[in-house]
Amino acid sequence: MGTYQGSCHCGAVQFEVDTELDMTAHCNCSLCRRKGAVMSMVEADKFRLLAGENDLALYQYHTHVAEHYFCKHCGIYTHHRPRRFPEKYGFNVGCLDEVDTLALDPIVMDGASLD
Question: What's this model's pTM, rounded to 2 decimal places?
């Protein structure tokens, strides 16, 4: 397991995550289809927001349970608290330093059936 540093595009929001990056995913829900991010998920104690808490905006839709966070300056989605797994954090793998998302083989999660 490695510790990865991540940030939004402008650098206002910074986080680190302990993960193996052994499972990455694209979700086909209405929101994720539009943002097109490669995501992964970890237990809450493996995700740490280091900077930018006041620079985050929260977006919620449908049941208003899941929490989707993005930088209010550059607009990049950095992480989320899933509706089905509130004990975890999902994060944008594209925000991680030195990780090439094009080299990954993400699965497709059927979030559309939950919309």
Answer: 0.91
